[in-house]
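Lecture 7 notes. Example A: sequence first, then its structure tokens.
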Amino acid sequence: MQKKCRKVAVFACSGIGKSLGTVAREIGYELTERVRPHDTLLTCLALLVINDPETQKLITENPVIVIDGCSLDCARKSLEANGAPLVKAYQSIDFFKKHKDLKPEGVAELNDAGKKLAALAADELAGVVDELLRGGDDGQANESRNHILQR
């Protein structure tokens, strides 16, 4: 029997200088601050780079949602390299492809379309958070670019 997780850790791309990286970060903020504030915890990839013990514990004892800004998947690869056992990975471009009318622009500050795109993506990821907290996978995240890594 799988124990119920207390939080879902959320890591977002830090793709500085790219609109889709900014969208990824905004999705992380929306998911952890508005959509599921009591069930999620947003943390940064830099803590993995410096081998922060609390972050290591967080990713090995809890499920993780990672949101990358591009196909390089830097955030996902960082989590894999640090031994995260359960990662549901997304790319912000995939949410944009579903909502092509919401073209994100801006780097330091997203335009209204980019903010709305991030909000819609966070709303969609709410179901993934719920399923992870129940200890299962409802298949909702099995889209073409999603990587589900279970070790």
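Example B, a different protein, same format:
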Amino acid sequence: MANAHFSDLLSAVAERGRALLGRLEWPVGGANKSADVADICEALLSSRGEASGVAMAQEAFDRYASLAPDQKLEFFNALATKYGPDHEALERALRAFRDNPDGENQSNLHYSAEPRRQELFRRLNRAPGGTAGLVRMREDLLAFMRANPDLKVVDRCLSHLLSSWFNRGFLVLRRIDWSTPANVLEKIIRYEAVHEIRDWEDLRRRIDPADRRCYAFFHPALRDDPLIFVEVALTDSPPGAIAPLLAETRDISTPGKMKTAVFYSISNCQQGLNGISFGNFLIKQVVEELRRDLPGLDTFMTLSPVPGFVKWLKTSAAREAGADDALLEAVADASWAADRERAEALRKPLEALAAHYFLHGKNKNGRSADPVARFHLGNGARLERINWLGDVSPRGLRDGAGLMVNYLYDRDAIEANHEAYANLGMVVASGAVKRMLKPGRDRLQLSAVQSN
């Protein structure tokens, strides 16, 4: 309520500012729309008035939203080339620091080196809904950066500010259940990124029964728009497949039998906040919430997809580990999982390759090749188990050859595991996973796995 009142107050200030700008005949409209937005941004940076500044920020967002994609790209290019630091001021500060590197000159150098675009983003944030507007703007920016790497200088400024504004101290954890307002539930359905929620009944099966939980992080500036959420199944033992957890008909676990909390879906909701991590805080806080509410729980783990495995099988690293053309051909035919004989022939070689993928597969930065593994290992989890045919959905077979993985969150070992991975790149794994790599097992040939 307080946040809504403040937003209404900002809107009122913006309206008064618009009236003031109208009386001053502040220019609006023009043939070059991206230049118009840039002109408004220049005026915003020069503004000293509170009401006029709020109004200019709102006007900039309104004009930006009306731009075509090529015009948005032109605007971002202007931010990259024309909104850097004041070079003359930076040179003076640098000379002063070289002559006398004391604290004051160091501080002056720091502030002189700040790009003008960073202050622009701060001022844009004054608009009603300004934070949400900047998140949407960064979503566009990230899309353009794939083909325009020079825009990274813009993203550094914007992501720096968003990381500060969305740090853990501002996030609020809320449980999502059937009494949650419908507008939030609709967003949970829309944002689910791991296991599609088909309809309202499917959603209810995931959040309403006594053995199901859903938690989300919210930020005051985005009101009822979740940042990230996790779905949890409470079971009597660690699961190895997703289908039983999502089944339309199943037995509901009773509190006395709930021993394991399974995080089976984690979805980021705001593409404009990619790279700004909330998941590590979310899982650890949800673990504490569950321990307090259900003290009988003694195991906390994930049931995770393996989204990069099939793609990795096509690499030279996989070839060196024992993959061959026969395996690739067999995996490409999704019907193999329903054929017991073919599936059994593939099991040992695929499990061995999966163990190699998780224990030794690296990306260009020297971290785990699998993105989900990077996330959980970085959080301090242990690679506990590789589950054969854990996800035989079309997506599960296409991306992960039907495999799923359990990552174990052992509260007593989380920090040590995190340090081992962060500092040494060490993948902490169970003995069961490591044994899949025993000599001779990871280089089996697959000539016997041809479909008839």
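Note on Example B: The radius of gyration is 26 Å. Confidence is low (pLDDT under 50) at residues 20-27, 440-452.
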